[in-house]
Amino acid sequence: MHRFVACVAAAILLPGAALAQSRDEVQFMINLFERLQPLSFAKHREYCGFVGFGSDGQLDATEPAPGNMDSCPLDWPQGMDVIASYHTHGAFDFAYYNELPSDVDMLSDQSLQIDGWIATPGGRLWFVDWERMVTKQVCGVGCLPIAPNFYKSQAGDVAKAYTYDELVERLSR
Fold first, then answer.
1. How far apart are CA 5 and CA 126, in angstroms?
2. Element spanning 162, H or E
């Protein structure tokens, strides 16, 4: 019974965790993005990589690769059992809906058949489930470092989760 209650509590406290591999993975991603967000903001660019299990069976991430303001190229890593991609959304910019994953983010993960993790300038952490084509906020504004000049109202109301079709509709407004 205690195990069931703990699982229910984790699902309530970390809504995206139900889709994630484990609580350890969620914490691993939070720690990774806490270190990466300030660099992404300072350089006004995305940083990306992969998450997976190394030959020692431990969760690991590839070295963050620099991208540009709205994309980030990735090379598939050797020696890692990849489970997900990760990337930041760079510095806050009024010209972008950078508080949400993009349709391209979701399609990229689907094409690679891996899940995805996305950190936004407002400090949100998103998880993309490539099989269901659903993205969910693991934690909201301020969960991760927030970009200078972040303006919360720019994105309008942001739902806790979107299907791919809902996201495409939301981004076309």
1. 25
2. strand 161-163
Report yes or no: 63 and 87 within 8 Å, Cβ to Cβ.
no
Distance CA 164, CA 146 (A): 26
Q: Tens of pLDDT along 46-73? A: 999 999 999 999 999 999 999 998 889 8
Residue 115: half-sphere exposure toward Cβ, Cα within 13 Å: 23
Number of folded domains in the chain?
1
Q: Distances in Å between the alpha carbon of 2 and those of 8, 9, 42, 135, 159?
A: 10, 10, 45, 29, 31
Q: Looking at the whole model, is its pTM more than 0.70?
A: yes
Nearest to 19 by CA among 143, 139, 127: 127
**CA 11 → CA 60, 86, 100, distances in Å?**
24, 22, 21
Interatomic CA distance for residues 58 and 77, integer angstroms: 15
Domain extent for 65: 2-171
Q: What are phi and psi of 82, to 5 degrees?
A: -70, 135
